[in-house]
Design goal:
By secondary structure, the protein is α+β, with helices and mostly antiparallel strands. Helix content is 31%, strand content 15%. This is CubicO group peptidase, beta-lactamase class C family.
Length: 380
């Protein structure tokens, strides 16, 4: 499959890596955008976007960004902190009184954004359609007892993060969750990004499918084993309750939903542009970005069952195979399920975005994105 787009000659080695990924046996669609010092040096795309492998990936093809969405929500909340409308260390229950139930009186926004709140999964069985009902899901969040005392340890909240952050946004900002996130994190930068996709944009969205035969790394196999054999385990519930979580991503109601943990729709240019905006000081005051990208939690993750390291809404680089952005120790960003990745390296002034519609099985960083990031570093 041919590569489309632009490549600065200095970064030809990255374009070669991109072409090799596109020629892999199961490859479908890919896009990559990299900015260095605010200048776009790579803007590549190729492959196919529909389930029948007939429609070529276009420059403006959108794809579900999954957890790459989380930092967009974090930035919206941190802007409210900067405006004095929200406090990092004030109990969430002061803004959302119902949240104080079941021993959650001490949980703060800082705990939520660094995955230390303990509300990583819902233990009450939910129905498939509950996923799309905001009041039902936020009521379940409010009633949920935490898995540990706030701040004691950490465990990634793959989907509950969206209702935790989203309900705070709704109550404090006074807009719908999607309107708030887009207006605060994407619109100021002119990004092609949606949280709650309008029906008229459906034709641009790439169909997602899963690769076959690749069982992932040790961390992926460990998590898969737990989810198949321990139905009541925290990790299992985090990914399977409501039961529609893993099966809805190509459905219209998923795209319409405004769930800031997992269903932003954008492309590689959206991700790179977002991180360039952060590097350029266009979204957050410098001191707040510094606070958001310093280490808040590190070590064994009680949900993902591997080591993770978080700031506030951002995953931080960790020098182990499945958790490094491949640039430097100051890098910050977030991977998304199946392979997408957005991050910034302030030391090298790099903003990076990668997306694909062929989902891999990896828990944190997908090796395809890591190969490209390593190639970028080699060209600098």
């Amino acid at each position: 499959m041919s590569v489309q787009g632009y490549c600065d000659p200095q970064f030809q080695a990255v374009a070669d890596e991109f072409a090799a990924l596109l020629d892999a046996p199961q490859a479908r669609g890919l896009a990559l955008c990299v900015q260095v010092g605010g200048t776009t040096v790579l803007d590549l795309w190729g492959g196919v976007r529909d389930k029948d492998n007939r429609q070529p990936w276009q420059r403006d093809t959108l794809v579900n960004l999954f957890s790459c969405t989380k930092p967009f929500a974090a930035v919206a909340l941190l802007q409210l902190v900067a405006e004095g409308k929200l406090q990092l260390d004030t109990p969430i229950a002061e803004y959302w009184p119902e949240f104080a139930q079941a021993g959650k009186q001490a949980i703060t926004l800082r705990h939520v954004l660094s995955h230390q709140a303990g509300v990583t999964a819902l233990t009450t069985a939910l129905q498939a359609d509950d996923l799309f009902d905001w009041p039902t899901m936020t009521a379940a969040i409010a009633a949920q007892a935490p898995a540990w005392p706030a701040g004691q340890t950490h465990g990634y909240a793959p989907i509950t993060y969206g209702w935790l952050t989203g309900e705070l946004l709704r109550r404090v900002d006074g807009r719908s969750v999607g309107d708030s996130v887009v207006a605060r994190s994407a619109a100021p930068l002119g990004l092609d990004f949606f949280l709650g996709l309008p029906e008229q944009e459906d034709a641009r969205v790439a169909h997602l499918s899963r690769g076959k035969g690749d069982m992932g790394d040790e961390a992926a196999r460990r998590l898969l084993s737990v989810t198949f054999t321990q139905p009541k385990h925290l990790s299992t519930l985090a990914f399977t309750n409501p039961p529609s979580l893993m099966t809805s991503t190509n459905k219209p109601q998923w795209r319409r939903m405004q769930q800031p943990a997992a269903n932003g729709q954008g492309h590689a240019r959206s991700l790179a542009g977002f991180y360039q905006g952060l590097l350029a000081g266009q979204l957050l005051p410098a001191e707040l970005l510094t606070e958001a990208t310093r280490e808040h939690s590190q070590g064994e993750d009680h949900t993902l069952l591997t080591d993770t390291r978080f700031g506030l809404g951002f995953m931080l680089d960790q020098p182990i195979a499945n958790a490094t952005f491949g640039m430097g120790p100051q890098a910050f960003g977030h991977p998304g399920a199946g392979g997408s990745l957005g991050f910034a390296d302030p030391e090298r002034q790099v903003a990076f975005g990668f997306v694909t519609n062929l989902m891999g099985p990896y828990v944190l960083m997908d090796p395809r994105a890591q190969r490209l990031a390593k190639a970028v570093a080699g060209c600098l």
